[in-house]
Amino acid sequence: MYITIVIPTYWGRKTGKPRQLGDGVYDHPTPIDTDGLLGRCIESLKVR
After folding, report:
1. What is the average pLDDT across 17-31?
2. Which of 5, 9, 34, 47 has the smallest count of CB within 10 Å of its CB?
């Protein structure tokens, strides 16, 4: 048996790059060049 967890993520431009016309705006987009909260979330799901 396998368990699947779906984590919707919203990625933005690299850190320091301003939004451009046509970019979607979301509550907490993660800059594409960082782990942000997603990295911590995945780490917390590891079986210890």
Report:
1. 74
2. 47
Lowest pLDDT segment from 12-16, 24-28, 30-34, 36-40: 24-28
3-state SS assignment for residue 23: coil
The domain spans of the chain are 24-48
Distance CA 43, CA 37 (A): 10
Does 29 have pLDDT greater than 80? no
CB within 8 A of 34, min separation 6: which ones? 15
Alpha helices in 1-48 (DSSP H): 36-44
Token couple for 11: 């990625």
